[in-house]
Design goal:
Layout (H helix, E strand, L loop, with lengths): L2 H8 L4 E6 L2 E6 L2 E6 L8 E4 L2 E4 L1 H14 L3 H10 L5 H12 L5 H7 L3 H4 L16 H25 L1
Antiparallel strand pairs: 1-2, 2-3, 4-5
């Protein structure tokens, strides 16, 4: 049985948004669900009720990748939440290790480039904030953590 048929059988109200070579993207009620085939090894995999889930550290690296590629508002909201459990340095180090990235400049610039996210209008980019945080606060918090991390690095480089 195809996975899309299984999803419809288990979740009759599921609305499949797209199916492509990396996965199936859908809504179950108001919850966005991504079922992916991922070409990179996971750091950890959690299994809950027989369903394999990516760990938060794996998800954090995927968020950096997503922000670097498309800069969607929902990814910044997710990153903001992940920054409550991990430092930005930990996330960037994991991102570099997972994807074997030598040059982080594009990812670093993307972390504080909010223009695309500021202009989002489509349903797929709709953010329902469960934490009651404004978009402005999300941006400010990420930018503050970015500046804390990279100003320290910049000062260290100037001393050499």
């Amino acid at each position: 049985m195809m996975i899309s048929n299984m999803i419809k059988k288990v979740f009759p109200t599921a609305e499949i948004i797209s199916i492509n070579k990396i996965g199936i993207f859908l809504y179950i009620g108001e919850i966005k669900v991504d079922i992916i085939e991922y070409p990179f090894p996971f750091f950890e995999v959690e299994t809950i009720k027989g369903i394999r889930l990516a760990s938060k550290s794996d998800i954090s690296t995927m968020k950096i990748s997503a922000i670097t590629n498309r800069g969607s508002r929902k990814d910044f909201y997710d990153l903001h939440e992940l920054l409550k459990e991990f430092t930005l340095k930990e996330i960037i180090d994991d991102y570099q290790r997972k994807y074997n990235i030598d040059n982080l400049e594009m990812a670093k610039r993307s972390l504080i480039y909010f223009e695309d996210a500021n202009n989002e209008k489509e349903r797929n980019n709709k953010v329902i904030s469960l934490i009651n945080e404004s978009w402005e606060n999300i941006k400010d918090d990420i930018e503050r953590k970015y500046n804390e991390l990279f100003q320290i690095s910049h000062k260290n480089r100037q001393k050499k």
